[in-house]
Design brief:
By secondary structure, the protein is an alpha+beta fold. Helix content is 25%, strand content 34%. It has two domains: 219 residues, Rossmann fold (3-Layer(aba) Sandwich); 118 residues, Beta Barrel (OB fold (Dihydrolipoamide Acetyltransferase, E2P)), CATH 2.40.50. Bound molecules: adenosine-5'-triphosphate (ATP).
């Protein structure tokens, strides 16, 4: 029996195939290849200038690519004009029409598509209800708060049921509390409509909360592509480890492998073992990465562990997430999570021993 899924079921919705962008001799995006699956929420995450917007704009058609192809549903869309792509676009500045009411703004994409008036009325009412703006249908944008205006922008995008939506920092202008509410709202709308969505942000928490997969970008290229938990627990590069969540980094040089095939790294604080990251073989700089919650106070209790001695510098009580801050002789900081109620057995300035499983660490470059 053939149990392999049909090609149609596995084919990517969007195939970015070697797309690159040069401005003169400046590389805004190195040749980049990645697939976005149908119905997926993919986030481009990276610091300012890493090429996120450039990649998104090439998918939208607003910026022509220097090289590579864009394929949608298997067809070549590289040179297709923006207005023929039918994608929903939402940017940081809502760009609502100021002279139109909320209802008219949301109806606009449907009017452009010559839909019958009664269908437009129904679709607008339904979509406004989904973003909880039904009571504001007759207001003008200037009579709304920033969050409400951004909701109108979302409604105006989702109302015409685009198969692909591109969002570039859509919550960038909102305060933290409102951002968090809107993050959940966008996720909900994405699920309800089953849209394929590419989202740009430089905010790692936002990316972790919202995405099916995250594409971590730095210096005009993709550093790592994976689910939030893959990227958090198995960062492939030092950049990915430090950009997402808190990491302990022990810098050093590669010193071969142990009997189990784990990478050994020689650091100022001793030699440690960790799983070998994917991309580190030839790099100049290496580090063992271990997340604070994988480290335990006390001496190693069995084989397969790394052990470290360091000076206790501070104890930070922040509710459920109490932290011990340590410092190594070479000044490297090292943090671990302290279980509630556990005894430290040492004062500030005294030495403590900590340990973590070899499998919890990863040697990357
Ligand atoms: N029209 C242009 N001409 C020249 N350089 C450009 C142009 N547009 C973008 N760049 C450069 O390309 C690089 C990537 O820009 P891009 O806007 O993609 O970054 P980003 O990751 O989206 O950053 P941000 O989070 O700040 O928006 C930047 O160094 C930027 O200065």
């Amino acid at each position: 029996m053939n149990i392999s899924p049909s090609p149609a079921a596995t084919a990517a919705k969007i195939r970015i195939d070697g797309l690159s962008k040069m401005y003169g001799t400046f590389t805004a995006l190195e040749p980049t290849t990645l697939d976005v699956q149908r119905g997926e929420f993919l986030t481009l995450l990276g610091p300012s200038g890493s090429g996120k917007t450039t990649l998104l704009q090439m998918v939208s058609g607003l910026t022509p690519a220097t090289s590579g192809r864009l394929r949608i549903d298997g067809g070549d869309w590289t040179n297709r004009p923006v207005h023929e792509r039918g994608m929903g676009l939402v940017f940081q500045h809502y760009a609502l029409f100021p002279h139109m009411t909320v209802e008219e703004n949301v109806a606009f994409p449907l009017k452009m598509r010559n839909q019958p008036a009664d269908q437009i009325r129904t679709a607008v009412a339904e979509t406004l209800a989904k973003v909880q703006l039904d009571a504001f249908a007759h207001r003008f944008p200037r009579e709304l708060s920033g969050g409400q205006q951004q909701r109108v922008a979302l409604a105006r995008c989702f109302v015409f049921r685009p198969e692909i939506i591109l969002m570039d920092e859509p919550l960038g202008a909102l305060d933290k509390a409102l951002r968090e509410t809107m993050q959940l709202e966008i996720r909900r709308l994405h699920r309800e409509f089953g849209t394929t969505l590419i989202y740009v942000t430089h905010d790692q928490e936002e990316a972790l909360v919202m995405s099916d997969r995250i594409c971590v970008m730095n210096h005009a290229k993709v550093e790592q592509l994976g689910t939030p938990s893959q990227i958090y627990s198995d960062p492939e590069t030092i950049f990915a480890a430090t950009f997402i969540g808190h990491s302990n980094l022990l810098h050093g040089t590669l010193a071969g492998t142990d009997a189990e095939g784990n990478a050994l790294i020689r650091t100022a604080a001793g030699t440690f073992a960790g799983r070998m990251g994917a991309r580190d073989a030839d790099a100049a700089e290496h580090a063992l990465i271990v997340r604070p919650e994988r480290v335990t106070l006390g001496a190693a209790t069995g084989p397969g562990m790394n052990e470290l001695r360091a000076t206790l510098r501070d104890v930070v009580y922040i509710g459920s997430d109490n932290r011990l801050m340590l410092v190594l002789p070479d000044g490297t900081e090292f943090t671990l999570r302290l279980d509630p109620g556990s005894e430290i057995g040492a004062g500030i300035g005294e030495e403590v021993t900590v340990h973590w499983p070899i499998t919890a660490g990863r040697v990357v470059s």
